[in-house]
Amino acid sequence: MRLSPIDPSSYSNAHELIITHIDLEWTVNFEKSTLSGSASLSFKTLRDDVEEIFLDSSDLDIASMAVKTAAGEIPVSWDVGKPVENIGSKLTVYLPTKTSGEFKLIVEYETNPKASALQWLNAEQTCGKKHPYLFSQCQAIHARSLVPCQDTPAVKFTYNATLRHPIGVTGLMSAVKLKSESGVSYFKQSIPIPSYLLAIVVGALVEKPIGPISSVWAEQEQIDESAEEFSQTADFIAKAEEICGPYVWGRYDLLVMPPSFPFGGMENPCLTFVTPTLLAGDKSLATVVAHEIAHSWTGNLVTNRNFEHFWLNEGFTVFVEGKIVGRLFGNASRDFHALHGLSELTDCIKTQLADTPELTKLVVDLSDCSPDDAFSTVPYMKGSTFLRYLEDLLGGPEKFEPFFRSYLNTFKFKSVLTNDFKKALYDWFREDPKNEEFLSRIDWDLWLFGTGMPPVIPNYDRSLLEACQKHAKLWAENDIETIKASSLLSEPLTSIQLIEFLAQLLEKKTIQGLTPEKVALLDQTYRIHATKNAEIRFRFVRLYIRAKMMDKMDEILAFANSNFRMKFVRPIYKELAGWPEAKPIAVENYNKVKDQMMTVCAYTVSKDLGLETGK
């Protein structure tokens, strides 16, 4: 069932009226785990005589509503529909008269302690152990648990916020901070954003400058390590501007999150949230920051109109991220980055999406599926592969990048569907009749609606990948003595190659003699226990699971409990669920820690374990 004409996951009647600006007054209450206060929503009608507003809400405790007009405030009545799991409720507001033009709706309310967008941590769950901590994650459709809104990326609004919080902690938002006084912070976001980019964090945070428009924020215990890890940020921004055009958001700060943050990064405007699992000690995972910076154009400026077209955000962003990597570290690195993405895609299609092939399409149908259930690496990797295919087909970067910049410039501040991109591509490249033949070769149906891996894999430079494949072949096909004698072991692998080698090994259908001795030799050979790199450790504990090493269960669970980044915990739980002796241990562990997970993580992991509900 599609909830509205514009967006299958939103009840809002955004085809009749839209929110253009929100003024937020929030008080953070750590004792009750709530935000309370008011939201003043500025509306503009798209047709005359609107009588009702349909908004999205989830577990909000609404005290009052009033329409503000020149004559003053008029109280209005409202009705909250029955909640639907993972979607929320339809909030119907009855306007006092038929309304046209612009008006404001003021809502006094409080969030629920279990609001799906908010994670409340007690002091014990932080590094410093002195102050509690609050953070939000609204993407895809959780802003409705923070504020009654048109929770669809089809609608964009500016916002101002006044945030009251305890003295002694810092409040930050996805906006520019205007000023802060004792226990009050003021923010302004002057560029229109979709609701999923609304963000808040409150905690014992300190900052350290890392560039002309950038600081990193973290708890004191991680600040120096974080500043060092992300020291390339200004270079990433400079390269992104070369590719995409001017950076318009004013600030680009980074916030290193607590371990329960469920994603690698979240591109909240002015303040990217990143997982602490990027702190590898050697900058080898910092390209996630290049990805989040790229979102400042692809996603944040030009936005998918609904999450069926999520590839317009993520595929485009991975494409730009690859270009940033290429400009800084060379084309072989760019291509290796893309090939590594393809091996993650292969893994995802084989494990996470094995039972739902329809979710391997580039454009998915969310009529009966929430965006959280559809979330995977497909829109990222299949989407970026499609763009690379188009770039190669249409004459390479020198021909494609001017088009790409023009597309971003045409659609900035707007929300788009795949057909908007397709039309822009044809309009641009048809100016030269020589391109007709190339354009006619593109099988849009197969790329957008075909299942499985991308129909064409571009002709990538495989030099950095081949070393990983040789190592994987050696370990998969030989016994311990042959491996020990191999000259290949004297050829060192970089951190990123080591990740890919382990990924390739896990992809093998059979690994000869996968005994505890062989796993121990692999550990010793590549010094895996000495690494802080979470991507390496993640793949190594999956090797323990593959080898059914029950005596390593404590280590497997220790990694799964060290962070709740879905990219890591979901495959681990899914693979433990497929090992009959381990499944009850995994379920018992999940039940112990699920309250420390963010809602989206607890919900999806429960499904991976085959439990009925994530509640």
UniProtKB/TrEMBL annotation:
<dbReference type="InterPro" id="IPR014782">
    <property type="entry name" value="Peptidase_M1_dom"/>
</dbReference>
<dbReference type="InterPro" id="IPR027268">
    <property type="entry name" value="Peptidase_M4/M1_CTD_sf"/>
</dbReference>
<dbReference type="GO" id="GO:0043171">
    <property type="term" value="P:peptide catabolic process"/>
</dbReference>
<dbReference type="InterPro" id="IPR015211">
    <property type="entry name" value="Peptidase_M1_C"/>
</dbReference>
<dbReference type="InterPro" id="IPR038502">
    <property type="entry name" value="M1_LTA-4_hydro/amino_C_sf"/>
</dbReference>
<feature type="active site" description="Proton acceptor">
    <location>
        <position position="292"/>
    </location>
</feature>
<dbReference type="GO" id="GO:0008237">
    <property type="term" value="F:metallopeptidase activity"/>
</dbReference>
<keyword id="KW-0449">Lipoprotein</keyword>
<keyword id="KW-0378">Hydrolase</keyword>
<keyword id="KW-0336">GPI-anchor</keyword>
<dbReference type="GO" id="GO:0008270">
    <property type="term" value="F:zinc ion binding"/>
</dbReference>
<dbReference type="InterPro" id="IPR001930">
    <property type="entry name" value="Peptidase_M1"/>
</dbReference>
<dbReference type="GO" id="GO:0004177">
    <property type="term" value="F:aminopeptidase activity"/>
</dbReference>
<feature type="binding site">
    <location>
        <begin position="565"/>
        <end position="567"/>
    </location>
    <ligand>
        <name>a peptide</name>
    </ligand>
</feature>
<dbReference type="GO" id="GO:0005886">
    <property type="term" value="C:plasma membrane"/>
</dbReference>
<dbReference type="GO" id="GO:0006508">
    <property type="term" value="P:proteolysis"/>
</dbReference>
<feature type="binding site">
    <location>
        <position position="295"/>
    </location>
    <ligand>
        <name>Zn(2+)</name>
    </ligand>
</feature>
<dbReference type="InterPro" id="IPR049980">
    <property type="entry name" value="LTA4H_cat"/>
</dbReference>
<keyword id="KW-0482">Metalloprotease</keyword>
<feature type="binding site">
    <location>
        <position position="314"/>
    </location>
    <ligand>
        <name>Zn(2+)</name>
    </ligand>
</feature>
<keyword id="KW-0434">Leukotriene biosynthesis</keyword>
<dbReference type="InterPro" id="IPR045357">
    <property type="entry name" value="Aminopeptidase_N-like_N"/>
</dbReference>
<feature type="binding site">
    <location>
        <position position="291"/>
    </location>
    <ligand>
        <name>Zn(2+)</name>
    </ligand>
</feature>
<dbReference type="Pfam" id="PF09127">
    <property type="entry name" value="Leuk-A4-hydro_C"/>
</dbReference>
<keyword id="KW-0645">Protease</keyword>
<dbReference type="GO" id="GO:0098552">
    <property type="term" value="C:side of membrane"/>
</dbReference>
<dbReference type="Pfam" id="PF17900">
    <property type="entry name" value="Peptidase_M1_N"/>
</dbReference>
<keyword id="KW-0862">Zinc</keyword>
<keyword id="KW-0325">Glycoprotein</keyword>
<feature type="binding site">
    <location>
        <begin position="137"/>
        <end position="139"/>
    </location>
    <ligand>
        <name>a peptide</name>
    </ligand>
</feature>
<keyword id="KW-0472">Membrane</keyword>
<keyword id="KW-0963">Cytoplasm</keyword>
<dbReference type="GO" id="GO:0019370">
    <property type="term" value="P:leukotriene biosynthetic process"/>
</dbReference>
<dbReference type="Pfam" id="PF01433">
    <property type="entry name" value="Peptidase_M1"/>
</dbReference>
<dbReference type="GO" id="GO:0004463">
    <property type="term" value="F:leukotriene-A4 hydrolase activity"/>
</dbReference>
<feature type="active site" description="Proton donor">
    <location>
        <position position="380"/>
    </location>
</feature>
<feature type="binding site">
    <location>
        <begin position="262"/>
        <end position="267"/>
    </location>
    <ligand>
        <name>a peptide</name>
    </ligand>
</feature>
<dbReference type="InterPro" id="IPR012777">
    <property type="entry name" value="LTA4H"/>
</dbReference>
<comment type="pathway">
    <text>Lipid metabolism; leukotriene B4 biosynthesis.</text>
</comment>
<dbReference type="InterPro" id="IPR042097">
    <property type="entry name" value="Aminopeptidase_N-like_N_sf"/>
</dbReference>
<dbReference type="GO" id="GO:0005829">
    <property type="term" value="C:cytosol"/>
</dbReference>
<protein>
    <recommendedName>
        <fullName>Leukotriene A(4) hydrolase</fullName>
        <ecNumber>3.3.2.6</ecNumber>
    </recommendedName>
</protein>
